[in-house]
Amino acid sequence: MSARFPMLLxxxxxxxxxxxxxxxxxxxxxxxxxxxxLGWNSWNHFHCNVSAQLIxxxxxxxxxxxxxxxxxxxxxxxxxxxxxxxxxxxLVADSAxxxxxxxxxADYVHSKGLKFGIYTDAGRLTCxxxxxxxxxxxxxxxxxxxxxxxxxxxxxxxxxxxxxxTQYAKFRDALAKARRPIVFSIxxxxxxxxxxxxxxxxxxxRTTGDIGDRWASMIAILxxxxxxxxxxxxxxxxxxxxxxxxxxxxxxxxxxxHFSLWAVMAAPLMAGNDVRTMTAVTRDMLTNKEVIAVxxxxxxxxxxxxxxxxxxxxxWSKPLADGSRAVVLxxxxxxxxxxxxxxxxxxxxxxxxxxxxxxxxxxxxMTDRFNATVPAHGVVMVRITPSLEAGRN
Length: 393
Ligand code: GLA
Hints:
CATH superfamily of the largest domain: Aldolase class I
Number of helices: 14
Helix content: 25-40%
Structural class: alpha/beta
Distance between the termini: 11 Å
Bound molecules: alpha-D-galactopyranose
């Protein structure tokens, strides 16, 4: 690896961001999500149409379709599972859709070698008007722990007059008291600068409003979420929202770009499609192990935009633990074109090996730059490994 690179990285972390983390309180130390969470969430495809049967079939399909083996872990029910509170104040699941309640479902998901997640809201009601956790933080955390929940997403609807850092800290503390390892996913849409207090409060925090299954929405989120890379580190991740891959609103090239860009941003990769019926193309995209390895790299640095060779053409780069970089050549225009990444912009010196992470092939050793033809609204994603000789320069 280039001997200069770690130094450049340190300099970038200290001076380049203007937001050195040392000004913040320590990270949440629950030991979880040391790499960005990988899993599936019901919202993007199913909205309120959730049931125990859907979750069971999804868990089965994650095993048979190879998602579990590719690293997907959490199966998360989003909004609409809950209908009321009982006399003891405990949340009650919709008994028609979740016969027997949530615990047997969590047990089923665990029996498949997966983990189980659930949704609540820090306000009085969820976004779909179901009971929220405001004022019931401790009993809800306890209930989730008793059910075997491994991941909680807490939303921010119906929270008028409440202070986000305070409310999310309350639930963080309640989860700690419940004494079960539970990943804490903060979802206040980036509306209260969560990149400032999120790292000491949760394992991930949404940076933007909801994603739509459209290129323009995905790109707008990329531009916003990438501004907060300094806040990400192992255990604490910017969350640009769940994946739309396979939901039908984008082309395959656009979905490949979406997946590649989320990986280079070290984003949580929560599939949001119907995995029971997905096409082979969608499955192959979601289970691309070389792209997932970029997302899951142990260095835990969020990649960033390093070069704009021309309007609508961008080069994104993420440093990896072995001294290589994951590089995404992004063509935001509507015409296929050649994109060039220069070694200077990437901080690479001398000869470097280039491997294409979508064709799974070695492209060769290059000096100075790498060029590729990139489809309209598409990417080429490579891993660039400086040769040892270059590292000694
Ligand atoms: C908000 C969240 C979404 C989803 C819905 C559920 O919009 O941002 O991700 O959880 O609520 O109602």
